[in-house]
Amino acid sequence: MKDISPEEANRALNEQAEKVEQKDLEKVLAKEQKIEDKFRNNESMSGYLAKAKSMFGLIRDYWNGNYRQVPWKTIAAVAGALLYVLMPLDLIPDFIPLAGFLDDASVIAACLALVSDDLVDYEKWKLQQDHDITQSDKETLS
To answer: Any idea where the DUF1232 domain is (predicted)?
Structure first.
């Protein structure tokens, strides 16, 4: 059984991202638990769970209008990669033991490589927001 090449992963990611529309963000968010379960339950993907949660946070904050300092290309790539994980029949179908999830992991890895700077910026912003909320709570209690 062959592994998916980085080129194939990038091609799959780009194809999926090109199809992403605003309504797909809602679909990704609605399927968050199901997608996270795939990360959690598959050894080849479990290492990406924390990043997947950050990717969901990025989409959620973009969807809600809280964070717009990111290009649509990044949002489309993240949503496309997460939607790809949901597809049971992709480059290597998920029902094939072990190998079936390698393409999903490869697409996620390709996405993370593509959007890493934007995701780091978002994570910094999110930490600052959490810090500001904590400070506000402390001031309210004083």
So the answer is: 75-109
Task: Report the C-alpha gap between 98 and 2 in whole angstroms.
Answer: 12
Kindly list the domain boundaries of the chain, sorted by start residue: 6-141
Condensed to tens digits (0 to 9), the pLDDT of residues 82-92 reads 988 887 655 45
Q: How far apart are CA 114 and CA 41, in angstroms?
A: 25
Helix pair 32-41, 49-63: axis angle to 10 deg: 170
pTM of the model: 0.78
CB-based burial label for 71 (10 Å; 0-12, 13-18, 19+): exposed
pLDDT for 121: 97
Residue with tokens 């309210």: 140
